[in-house]
Design brief:
seven-stranded mixed beta sheet, alpha/beta, Rossmann fold, six-stranded parallel beta sheet
Length: 713
């Protein structure tokens, strides 16, 4: 930011304000705002070096004046309000001044906690009177701004860190509401009383704009419940009608009524739910606590919606030739490079989101907006009985997270009927894509030798070879054995194998194709007498997350084991795998199927350790499959870089090989970064040094997975 002095008397309109300056008067400009001045006006100013008040660093503000220097688009201005409100709440006797663009001024001008709204550029006389400054200009494309959620960014800049309410304050112009309300009521009447869905598919950058085709597909899902309306601001796009006609979209286009942001706010307030790509509409809907779905594509939606309790942000799951979503690009000129490469206009990351997913996200957003709902009275594992907060809503299930042990679980909880899953002719169960689950793949079997070879190449089983080799031999019982592939592996390592499985079809395959001792049972009480143990080893791979009584399930396993020395070996999806550590745990990961009715619980390292100790195991060892190259690339996307050679030529290099090679020590030694979390639990006493065995298992399997056996001739 810089201060410029007028060379002469000036009168001009700029950035939504009328300025009238005497010669020698000064204005403070954000540098990017000064760049927008017409050239003839720039020549009438000259830069002047002046002093500034100190930047605010959390001092007591009572009796002081703090000036928040902002330019801000509408969405940014809204995101400031939780921090501004919190400043005034903590320091009621401070004077809070805020500069803002003329375009965004309407969303702030009626807020009682702002004592003075100033234009951008700011008359320097106000700057000099302030005791402290907060600079929130010139921040786009800086890491501080780009890597924090917008509301959190302003909380951080204002040194308040937390606010009582972290949704924006939305000032509704009741006169505008009265103007629009008869139109919305008529739409409801003509639709037979359906709810109104406000659909805002346009964004400030074309690469974040939703393809109109998506709205047409969404209409087929919502037609029994909702009538969609489009409310675009006048400066956003004049082609809305053309898009509606081209794609035969029946939505009511109210864009001609949206004179300014006050009308958009009124439209959102009158709607029952919102689907948007536009972040200003998101912040308005979030502030009004409307059920809202955000499709942000190139941008991590959590950076825009994390603090809004009624918003579902749908992350894209797209890996293309030039990018992996989200690419993080907020604004670019023209379509995204990936779209241009494919000969398309709209960003493929947004085009790839199915309308079905958007519809079920909308249903989940409706659940988020409900204030009264059933809550668990205690944790399924540690039996904590205090308040258990809601973590997310996905596929019609509310997921809670125990503050004591960290378990995530739905309430109410209901296990899946696996015979129906195996036999289902349907492709989907809500968000759940049955073709993407293991159910169908498990039925694609070969001969015994091929099956063993195939499954030992799967990392979560490769890592178990050194452990199976060291485990005392005897009877082994595999729970949820599917078609028997692990039983074949265990038999190869010298165990006498038995198995139980909930699916009749899988049991039949295991018996018919491999002659295995497998029974159909959903609970331990259903086991035939010859399957009730005791066993030297019990295994259960990717089973724990499917059961509705995990503690009872683990107690049952403990009772199946030999009383003197028994071992339980298991795996489940990891909460803190490398991807989650690199990106943070992303909610609404619809493509992973890590949600009900498929998965009922999510486990952290300490949650699993605690549960196993609670049921009586004396020794517990937690580890994961090794961190491998593909796992790393799930968490980070290495950038390409260009070198300019001495002869003038340029050379573009992919940094991935260099990065992956430098991470080699992690592949051999990472205990907890892999994609499946495993546990080895001991009943009784074991004299084996299992820490050393597991360390070697990770190292051996990493070498084998990444570089192979080295047997090529």
């Amino acid at each position: 930011m810089k201060v410029y002095v007028a060379r002469t008397d000036l009168k001009f309109n700029f950035n939504g304000y009328n300025f009238e300056l005497k010669k020698g008067e000064k204005l403070l400009f954000a540098e990017d705002v000064f760049a927008l001045l017409p050239q003839n006006l720039k020549t009438l100013f000259k830069e002047e070096k002046v002093g500034f008040p100190p930047f605010y660093r959390g001092e007591n503000l009572n009796g002081k004046t703090i000036l928040v220097i902002a330019q801000a688009a509408i969405g940014d201005a809204l995101c400031m309000t939780p921090a501004l409100r919190e400043l005034k709440r903590r320091y009621p006797n401070c004077r809070l001044w805020v500069s803002i663009s003329g375009r965004a001024r309407p969303v702030l001008e009626k807020l009682s906690y702002i004592d003075k709204l100033l234009p951008m550029p700011i008359p320097y006389k106000y700057v000099s009177k302030a005791d402290y400054l907060v600079k929130v200009i010139e921040m786009v494309n800086t890491p501080q701004f780009d890597e924090l959620n917008l509301v959190e960014y302003y909380l951080w800049k204002c040194y308040v860190y937390h606010a009582e309410d972290e949704t924006p304050d939305i000032v509704i112009d009741e006169a505008v509401v009265s103007e629009l309300k008869p139109i919305f009521e008529e739409i409801r009447r003509l639709s037979g009383g359906k709810k109104i869905l406000l659909f805002h598919y346009l964004a400030s950058s074309v690469h974040r704009t939703l393809p109109p085709r998506l709205l047409k597909e969404i209409e087929d899902y919502i037609k029994e419940e909702y009538v969609p309306v489009i409310c675009s601001l006048p400066d956003e796009d004049i082609t809305v009608d053309v898009a509606l006609e081209t794609y035969d979209i029946t939505s009511a286009n109210l864009s001609s009524l949206m004179k300014d942001v006050r009308y958009l706010i009124a439209g959102v307030s009158l709607a029952d739910a919102v689907i948007t790509a536009d972040t200003a509409t998101l912040h308005i809907a979030g502030g009004l606590k409307k059920p809202t779905v955000l499709l942000s594509g190139p941008i991590n939606g959590e950076l825009r919606a994390r603090t809004y309790p009624t918003v579902i942000s749908i992350p894209s799951n797209y890996r293309g030739q030039t990018c992996v979503s989200p690419c993080g690009k907020h604004a670019i000129d023209g379509p995204c490079p990936e779209a241009e490469l494919k000969g398309e206009f709209y960003s493929p990351c947004l085009s790839s989101v199915p309308a079905r997913v958007v519809y079920y996200a909308l249903k989940d957003a409706e659940l988020l907006a409900e204030k009264d709902y059933a809550k668990p009275d205690k944790c399924l594992v540690c039996e904590y009985k205090g308040e258990i907060p809601l973590f997310e809503v996905i596929n019609g299930a509310r997921i809670f997270e125990c503050p004591s042990c960290g378990l995530q679980f739905p309430y109410p909880i209901k296990a899946e009927d696996y015979d129906k899953v195996y036999d289902s002719k349907n492709k989907y169960m809500g968000l759940l894509n049955l073709e993407a689950t293991a159910y169908e793949a498990y039925k694609q079997i070969s001969d015994e030798k091929t099956e063993i070879k195939k499954w030992l190449k799967v990392p979560r089983f490769t890592v178990l070879q050194a452990i199976l080799d060291r485990l005392p031999k005897g009877k082994l019982f595999d729970i949820g054995c599917s078609t028997g592939f692990f039983l074949l592996i265990a038999k190869k390592f010298g165990f006498e194998v038995y198995g139980m499985e909930a699916s009749s079809e899988a049991v039949e395959i295991a018996k018919r194709n491999f002659g295995l001792k497998v029974c159909k049972a959903l609970t331990f009480e259903e086991l035939p007498p010859e399957f009730r143990g005791p066993y030297k080893v019990v295994t259960a791979f990717e089973v724990l997350e499917h059961v509705d009584d995990p503690l009872g399930f683990l107690k049952g396993i403990y009772n199946l084991l030999s009383s003197d020395e028994g071992y339980y070996l298991m795996s489940c999806p990891p909460f803190y795998k490398f991807e989650n550590l690199a990106k943070g745990y992303r909610k609404f990961k619809w493509w992973y199927n890590d949600f009900p009715p498929h998965h009922l619980t999510r486990w952290k390292l300490w949650t699993l350790f605690y549960a196993l100790k609670k049921v009586g195991f004396s020794q517990v060892y937690i580890f994961t499959e090794p961190l491998i190259l593909g796992t790393v690339l799930e968490g980070i996307t290495p950038l390409s870089f260009t070198l300019k050679l001495e002869d003038g030529r340029t050379l573009t290099l992919n940094s991935a090989p260099i990065l992956l090679e430098n991470l080699k020590p992690l592949y051999l030694n990472s205990r907890y970064l892999g994609n499946f979390m495993c546990a080895l639990a001991v009943k009784g006493e074991s004299k084996i040094d299992w820490e050393r065995v597991i360390e070697r298992a990770i190292r051996f399997s990493a070498v084998e997975i990444i570089w192979g056996e080295g047997d090529k001739v």
